[in-house]
Design brief:
With about 150 residues, this protein is of the alpha+beta class. About 60% of the residues lie in helices and about 15% in strands.
């Protein structure tokens, strides 16, 4: 029950923030938050960092992401480690939220822009943060597992 509530809450939080950005900020205009971050409305028609933007149909990207989500779900079912299962769960939440966004808009809304002086990281969203946290957790889990195997 708790997992379902967390699942729904995190997806809704991501979609709500994307909606608020999409309907309240002009496209590609940034609002400075502090010296290291801006709020910006970007339409990402590609995959991570906008790769393949304009070269691949959004339906193909949705299909590929859905297959990857299914594969991650299968991996999570095979795992008997709680921390690893949690990592997969968080990755699935982020990936699914971006698939929902792409299904609605044909693109993914990105809005967090980090930078240092003239060095900018590509814009991202909460779902991307979920995926990143899940991947870091998986790496930690694998590192701990390999260390225990010695």
């Amino acid at each position: 029950m708790i997992k379902t509530i967390v699942f729904i809450f995190l997806i809704l939080l991501d979609l709500l923030t994307k909606f608020l950005v999409q309907y309240n900020l002009p496209l590609n205009k940034s609002i400075k938050i502090n010296e290291f971050s801006d709020l910006v409305y970007v339409q990402n028609f590609g995959v991570s960092f906008g790769l393949f933007s304009g070269y691949v149909s959004h339906w193909i990207l949705i299909f590929i992401a859905s297959v990857v989500i299914l594969m991650i779900y299968i991996l999570s079912m095979k795992s008997n480690k709680k921390f690893e299962k949690l990592a997969y769960f968080i990755i699935i939440i982020g990936a699914l939220s971006n698939v929902i966004d792409r299904s609605i808009n044909t693109f993914v809304v990105d809005f967090i822009l980090l930078h240092y002086k003239n060095y900018y990281w590509p814009a991202f969203n909460l779902a991307d943060i979920y995926i990143t946290i899940g991947i870091i957790m998986l790496l930690v889990s694998f590192f701990i597992e390999s260390k225990n195997d010695k």
